[in-house]
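2024-03-11 09:14:02 INFO queue: dequeued item Major facilitator superfamily (MFS) profile domain-containing protein, len=490
2024-03-11 09:14:02 INFO validating residues
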Amino acid sequence: MSCGAVYAVCALSTTTLSFVLPAAKCDFHLSSSDKGRLTATPLIGMCVGSYFWGNLADARGRRKAIIGALLLDALAAFVSSLVQSFPAFLACRFFSGFGIIGATGLIFPYFGDFLSLRHRDVMLCRLEVFWTFGTILLPGIAWLIIQDPRLNITAEGADFQYTSWRVFVAACGIPSLLVVLLLLPFPESPRYLLHMNKAEQALQVLQRIFVVNTKLTEKDFPVESMISAYDGEEAEVVAADNNGNETKSPLTWNQRWNAFWNRKKMLVTPPYIGLLVLCCFVDFGLMFSYYTLMMWFPDLFERFSQFSSLSPGVSAGVCEVSANVTRDELLGKNECPQAIDDTVYIHTLVVALSCVPTALSVGLSINMVGKKLMLVMMLISSGLAALGLNLVRSSLQNLLLSCVFEAIVSCTEAVLFCVICEIFPTKVAATAMAVTVTCGRVGAIVGNVVFGALVDQHCVVPIYMFGALLITSGLLCIILPKSTRPERPQ
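2024-03-11 09:14:37 INFO prediction written
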């Protein structure tokens, strides 16, 4: 529950800007291109931050890195609610992305380190459900805060503005602080402690787990000493008694470097280099489509709302609505400030709720259907749903198709990660995952910039790009091998 709460907060922080786009448009005089830059900036922070937090977690521990990442995210949220210029706001959101990616990336290995192999897959799949809960919570918080005129704390036209959307941005930093309090009672990962040759501390953690779970005393714990062992070329055995006395010294830096380089060479030789390029292409296309539309859905719903108020009874597609609303803004028909229509919050909430059945069913059915087949089906069907956005003629049709797209695509990356763990050997799987995730974040950056630049006059282009990338990725996944690993023992 605690790790799930952290993951839900990661979803909340990652998607905060989706409601800032329509709400802050007047304060910062944002064009669609500016909105694209705004949604891309935290992703750039994520690309930079993932490497930093990964190294910090290896050097100082998983738990400390997660807590530090959450504190930085909260600080960035509070400061970004205060700054008055758009460049300063962009800088703060960069650090928000820089921080939250640390918690997002490390909560899975931290949680998994406490689980036995028998329970690990099921429990990690359950953790995915909390991401959906975070996206459900967001429109509720936004509706309660942004729509409340009492939270426009400063007078209109004042030099220092603190309006309701700024209160919302600050409020989205509070959960990051609260989940830090949830993590404080928990120990460091025992697997990490063994990896760092701190066998005595690892033993103390396991003793504590034993005491909590069994209500017995530490003296009843049957293990008296711990041994950490590594496979392959990094073989290094360190035994310790209760006093932590080591019986073997660790590898030298030169040995570690050689082992590290041998692993990387494996990843860039056939067949793994081809599999890596394919996985990177799939995640690039997936995040290009998923993250872009996820961040822009509230803004698109707001455009439909404005169009309906200006042209009641007229049916139009997504691209026609965007073009008309933009033209009306240029002609001065849409005045600032504007309150976001209630339907925007309701529609965003409905889209988030549509992901719940998928999030629950994927974990239950993935072994029956098969990871590869499920990945192919999800990519192709979400691509067809994306192409269908060009065919909608009303706000209701747009909502229904958005629900279908989001429900399918929201869990697709998790299935891709399961496939990566199957097709790459253990010693290079983590590196393959890191490279793939980075390519996905680059795809999200490019997608947001492209969509922001084209949505007003040429929005049919990015929509066709979304569909083409997803369907092509799905067809390419057909050539993926089932697994390169031996069958796991029952």
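2024-03-11 09:14:37 INFO annotate: The chain is about 75% helix and 0% strand.
2024-03-11 09:14:38 INFO item closed
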